[in-house]
Amino acid sequence: MTLIFNVYLVSFTAEGLFVLASPVLGNIPHSILGTVALLFMMLVILCIGSFKQLPWRPLAPALFLSLWQGCLYLPLPAYLDVKPLLFAAGAAHLSVGLNVFFSVRRATGGASFPFQQRQWTDCTFSFSRTILAGALKLFVLTPGLLLYLAWSAQLMLQKMSHGFLQIDSTGLYTEAREYEKDAQKIHLLPTVHVAAPAFYDKLMEALPSSQSVILPEGVTDKKHLMKARLDYSVAADSLGLSTQPDLTEKHKGPATQACDADISDFSAPTVALLNGVAGILQAASAGNTLGALESLATFENIDTMTVIDDIIRTRNMRVVEGVRTALQTHQHVAIPWGAAHMPGIESEILKMNFQRGATRRVMVFGWKDLKFPSEP
Q1: Which pTM does this prediction carry?
Q2: What's the domain count of the chain?
């Protein structure tokens, strides 16, 4: 237990230091230390639940902060900038860790490590205490944590998607929205790559057949830069779902107008990322674990902001230009694009003085409909 307590305190404190130094050292050191601290925190909590008279109370602030950072702060990243939040947590780790380190060290006579073997002489294992602590964790803390995580996921998903993605006790939903100006309407139809088959039919069914045009999502690859196709069929089949079909085939009648980008319009890091994802999906479909890991290695040194600019913002601007062109000849313009694109597209539509009108929720899939690989 001496080793467990000391390793937890050192890794907890060092994690805070490396978080503050992450602009220079990168994120890997503090991520490794955070994992070590989390594992040893769980061991400390197990010891507290099984032994009497453990000298754990000085660690209470650190344990509380570890639990908070582990899961209890989850809704905050959807409302606050993640980087300042991370630095605040790092500063708190370093401050609390050093305070615990020196206070315990003073109490033990200035020993090289704060927790010493002699501190465990009066500690005894308690079977009844272990049973009580196990029952508390199993029947109270675990259900409470699961409910909290579900609530956090619901809040984060709704906030980050601006309500275009919604989750509740029955399943996952997208919210289709209409925007009106004069006699014209724009239909935002948020979709996902993997869903129940009925989702795609219901998403498109409200679109009028006449005086309508569909701006389909679909990046082209005229220069053949992609080494493999982005194929989600393995993930879909494993869950009993379907991959996204050609949505223009789901609603006969409206015209179509291509306006998406080409792979050659993207930066080299984005093309590398897309090829990496495609490689992982291709290897997974063939059961090639080594190939999937090799494709994963291509994700190193990816510029996240550049990728987001290419995949989201650049394509959003393309479809907005397509909307302006389509409105010159059509009364209804439908945009069945991924839900991640919808907040940006909606923002541009509102700038065009369109007003939000009717909305409807469409179930992507229900929890009861999911089939997991372990099921026959």
Answers
A1: 0.79
A2: 2
